[in-house]
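Q: Structure for this?
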Amino acid sequence: MRWVQADCESTNIHSVESNIAKIGQQLVLLAEIADYPVGFCCVLAGRTSSDPLFIQQVTVVPLAQKRGIGLALLNAAAEWQPERNIAMATLDDNGAARRLNASFARSIGGRLQRVPLRRFRRSDLGFASGERHRPWMIDRQQKAD
Ligand SMILES: CC(C)(COP(=O)(O)OP(=O)(O)OC[C@H]1O[C@@H](n2cnc3c(N)ncnc32)[C@H](O)[C@@H]1OP(=O)(O)O)[C@@H](O)C(=O)NCCC(=O)NCCS
């Protein structure tokens, strides 16, 4: 995780202890090419069975981007608990993340929709109060238009 964090300008580099703590609390999926880590995704299952899966972070190192790794990580997260909807928060001006979310929703046949900021806790979505991320949800029961 730390190598990927170090390679990605937009991602904070966390201590090994902090990354180990995250692995203890959440599902952390690692993508590798030839044993070299190229991306990861942190996923939190909601507290109750009707809560969604929260995609807290998905990051792919710049050299491996636009090759389907982000989408593969999200698909693996979706398969983990297929009965749950999926929520994530994205900055409006993060075109790569917005396009990835749209491709992800299409690939699992769900409907991607914006949801009000108050719908989920910021900590579940993985961002702090000063950040301008906006929440989205993929409803897996409602088919995409
Ligand atoms: C967002 C991110 C994870 C995408 O990973 P990726 O492996 O490049 O994504 P994929 O190759 O699976 O591409 C999925 C879709 O996003 C599009 N996409 C990826 N990077 C893009 C970019 N820089 N600009 C526009 N679209 C982009 C792809 O073209 C593809 O769209 P399509 O299916 O309509 O063709 C990656 O850019 C990244 O790590 N960014 C920095 C961290 C970040 O912003 N994470 C998201 C918020 S936590």
